[in-house]
Specification:
Length: 142
């Protein structure tokens, strides 16, 4: 008789264990996480590049010469630093206020923006008259 009551107790405890596992699985499937993040550990959201005060970008300045470009978006200043690995130094190579540069609409570019606008208008007229997926490649389209 003791053996039978012991078997019933083990059966009840195993049934409770299975019920708890099923409840845990249902909770996990509903929330999608085993443990939610603590309120103090909310994921860090990086601000978009345009809203930062300083943007740093690594770059190759010449063959075997590396450095970084630093753009101060508030002061509109661009700086270039070169890293010298032998000396373990970062040296300022150039610095420039770009406020006036940003006001230029066309400097040292080919084709000029007006020429691009003419080409776009020409293409719109051609595509509007004859529906095609893409114009046939040709030499100079001027």
């Amino acid at each position: 008789m003791k053996r039978r009551s012991l078997q019933k107790l083990v059966l009840v405890l195993l049934s409770l264990n299975v019920a708890m596992v099923v409840l845990l699985l249902a909770t996990v499937m509903r929330s999608g996480e085993i443990m939610p993040a603590a309120w103090a550990q909310l994921p860090q959201v990086q601000p978009p590049l345009a809203s930062r005060d300083v943007i740093v970008a690594p770059g190759q300045l010449a063959i075997n010469q590396w450095g970084c470009y630093v753009l101060d978006t508030r002061a509109n200043t661009l700086c270039i630093y070169q890293y010298s690995p032998g000396e373990r130094l970062l040296r300022l190579q150039a610095s420039r206020a770009i406020t006036q540069d940003l006001l230029l609409t066309s400097f040292n570019t080919m084709p000029q923006p007006a020429e691009v606008a003419e080409l776009v208008d020409k293409e719109k007229r051609l595509l509007g008259a004859k529906p095609t997926t893409a114009p046939a490649p040709s030499g100079d389209q001027r």
